[in-house]
């Protein structure tokens, strides 16, 4: 995970034509990685019950391993919700608030939510990459 974290932060910096270690240095050597397993059970009323309400991640980056078959993640763009298709065994990389701040708003921390499903349960693994709180 540490190598993936470093590769992502370096690639994002290079894409903005700034020094390769710019975001990595701002996140620090000893940032936390918090893993959260999510289980969304069947829901008889998915029209009125959300799995997770709309929010943006406070992390630097979130790495999500989605359920390999069941959709549920949606992102908000131009006041409209769009479904995020499942890519079996793929990793979804989500920019968090910290990278939005570090990039002066060039990278956006998307508002997203999770829907429930009336027919199938859903499992995901989210890994939140957090900056080192000791770095200024």
UniProtKB/TrEMBL annotation:
<dbReference type="InterPro" id="IPR050295">
    <property type="entry name" value="Plant_2OG-oxidoreductases"/>
</dbReference>
<dbReference type="Pfam" id="PF03171">
    <property type="entry name" value="2OG-FeII_Oxy"/>
</dbReference>
<feature type="domain" description="Fe2OG dioxygenase">
    <location>
        <begin position="31"/>
        <end position="131"/>
    </location>
</feature>
<keyword id="KW-0479">Metal-binding</keyword>
<dbReference type="InterPro" id="IPR027443">
    <property type="entry name" value="IPNS-like_sf"/>
</dbReference>
<dbReference type="InterPro" id="IPR005123">
    <property type="entry name" value="Oxoglu/Fe-dep_dioxygenase_dom"/>
</dbReference>
<keyword id="KW-0408">Iron</keyword>
<dbReference type="InterPro" id="IPR044861">
    <property type="entry name" value="IPNS-like_FE2OG_OXY"/>
</dbReference>
<protein>
    <recommendedName>
        <fullName>Fe2OG dioxygenase domain-containing protein</fullName>
    </recommendedName>
</protein>
<dbReference type="GO" id="GO:0016491">
    <property type="term" value="F:oxidoreductase activity"/>
</dbReference>
<keyword id="KW-0560">Oxidoreductase</keyword>
<dbReference type="GO" id="GO:0046872">
    <property type="term" value="F:metal ion binding"/>
</dbReference>
């Amino acid at each position: 995970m540490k190598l993936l974290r470093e590769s992502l932060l370096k690639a994002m910096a290079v894409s903005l034509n700034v020094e390769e270690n710019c975001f990595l240095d701002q996140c620090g050597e000893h940032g936390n990685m918090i893993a959260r397993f999510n289980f969304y059970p069947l829901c008889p009323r998915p029209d009125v019950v959300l799995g997770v309400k709309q929010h943006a991640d406070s992390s630097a980056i979130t790495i999500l391993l989605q359920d390999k078959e069941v959709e549920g993640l949606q992102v908000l763009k131009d006041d409209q919700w769009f479904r995020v298709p499942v890519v079996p065994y793929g990793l979804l990389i989500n920019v968090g608030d910290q990278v939005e701040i570090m990039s002066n708003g060039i990278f956006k921390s998307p508002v997203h939510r999770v829907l429930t499903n009336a027919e199938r349960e859903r499992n995901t693994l989210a890994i939140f990459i957090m900056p080192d709180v000791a770095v200024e």
